[in-house]
């Protein structure tokens, strides 16, 4: 058994790659059996709501697509020094690929499609696509996962359409496992490349943090009619959840931008407090590992 430090209830703080791989393999066995219920047509209260819904799920589609391709790209780089970790990345990327397929199916079912990206989103993904270093890709992925899960959970507060709720719940449930999984990826990659600059990582963390906050405002213009989440609500939740991401993992040394915390009234105490395990902990992963046992709630 591992000698890693343990939490109060006996769950190790970190797990070996073999543990993650076993879970990912188990998850892959049944993944494609889960189907969307597209037996009924989806009704919207207005054309504006329909267009906002299509915009919302287009943004989700792009995030899933970038997660999938980032993971598969990394798998190829990692394979030569850690085939087990590479396999984890492939299986993780496949989960994102499956999410992308579900979103595609949903969009077509409601009479939409995958649309070309707007300038802000496309410039963000272009920058992300240029990220060469493994830890940059993983860190960005982890932050994407966090805001994805935050957006989906907030939307569950207001969205009533059953099929949209089914999609949102599947995505939320799986992203809650992906967040701690990505932390494992980052730790493994940093172990391999301890020389890689701390300052650079912090810079990336800050740039991505600010970009995501900016994008949350952009998304309100096109999606609010569907999810009914206000700009203030969404941005506050982004700042809080991105800020909380590393609050309990001091070895990773990421500190959220103080001016943003102040602007949204988020104190260090609020970041430190939570009613469950830290979203990036092994404990959180264990809770989220078995899909059928995860209870998804609105934020
Ligand atoms: Fe996903
Ligand atoms: Fe994910």
Provide the low-confidence segments as ranges: 1-9
Pairing-aware structural class of the strands and helices? mainly alpha
Largest sheet: none
- Tally of DSSP helical segments: 11
Q: What percentage of amino acids are in beta strands?
A: under 5%
The count of DSSP E runs of length 2 or more, i.e. the number of strands, is 0
Q: Report Rg.
A: 19 Å
SSE pattern, N- to C-terminal = HHHHHHHHHHH
Give the cofactors and ligands: fe (ii) ion
Query: What share of residues is helical?
Result: 55-70%
Intertermini distance = 36 Å
Describe what you observe in this structure:
With 299 residues, this protein is an all-alpha fold. It is 68% helix and 0% strand. It has helices at residues 17-31, 47-78, 83-109, 119-130, 134-155, 162-192, 198-227, 231-244, 258-263, 268-272, 282-289. Helix 3 runs antiparallel to helix 6 (162-192). Residues 64, 67, 96, 99, 171, 174-175 line the site of one fe (ii) ion (FE2).
Please give a quick description of this structure.
This protein is mostly helical and 299 residues long. It has helices at 17-31, 47-78, 83-109, 119-130, 134-155, 162-192, 198-227, 231-244, 258-263, 268-272, 282-289. The longest helix is centred in the N-terminal third of the chain and has 32 residues, at 47-78.
Descriptive key words:
299 residues; disordered N terminus
